[in-house]
TrEMBL record:
GO terms for molecular function: tubulin binding. This is Tubulin polymerization-promoting protein family member 2. Residues 126-170 are annotated as: Disordered. The gene is Tppp2. GO terms for biological process: microtubule bundle formation; microtubule polymerization; positive regulation of protein polymerization; regulation of flagellated sperm motility. It comes from Jaculus jaculus. Belongs to the TPPP family. Pfam families: p25-alpha. Residues 129-149 have a biased composition (Basic and acidic residues).
């Protein structure tokens, strides 16, 4: 059973943390795990409870918890979530809530394709000088698509005698 819980722990520990190895979890991801798995129900277990338990199980100076400390935290939250059950049953209940869960990305902003946006970004409908800046496939040509690129080779912009100084002084 612990392996399922550990798998869930690792997925949440690494969620949004590209540098994380998945062995330690920060408070943000701990709260997310509790929320996504339904351990935090905002009645018996609130976000405040989750924060307090996290602070209690972590080492004084640490900002993360290990799986070992996570199990301690789950025992404590289990007592709150499943009142009246013995600690082992409560922990079992928590692990069942966690089973097979992965970090949800609900509420993540999706790009919208509103009518106007589609119309404005469709390069096939561009005319005039704007049309020149895209190839047939609609991909932008970048700076090459602009005809008037400034020549900044002189020491002052617009200086026409670039590279002639040494020739005159001899």
């Amino acid at each position: 059973m612990a392996s399922e819980a550990e798998k869930t722990f690792r997925q949440f520990a690494a969620f949004g943390e590209s540098s994380s190895s998945g062995t330690e979890m920060n408070n943000k991801n701990f709260s997310k795990l509790c929320r996504d798995c339904g351990i935090m129900d905002n009645k018996a277990v609130t976000s405040t409870d989750v924060d307090i338990v996290f602070s209690k199980v972590k080492a004084k100076s640490a900002r993360t918890i290990t799986f070992q400390q996570f199990q301690e935290a789950m025992k404590e939250l289990g007592q709150k979530r499943f009142k009246g059950k013995n600690p082992d049953e409560a922990l079992e209940g928590i692990y069942q809530l966690m089973e097979g869960k992965v970090p949800a990305t609900t509420g993540v902003t999706k790009t919208t394709a509103v009518g106007a946006v589609d119309r404005l970004t469709d390069t096939s409908k561009y005319t005039g000088s704007h049309k020149e800046r895209f190839d047939e496939s609609g991909k932008g040509k970048g700076i090459a698509g602009r005809e008037e690129t400034a020549d900044n080779s002189g020491y002052v912009s617009g200086y026409k005698g670039a590279g002639t100084f040494d020739k005159k002084s001899k």
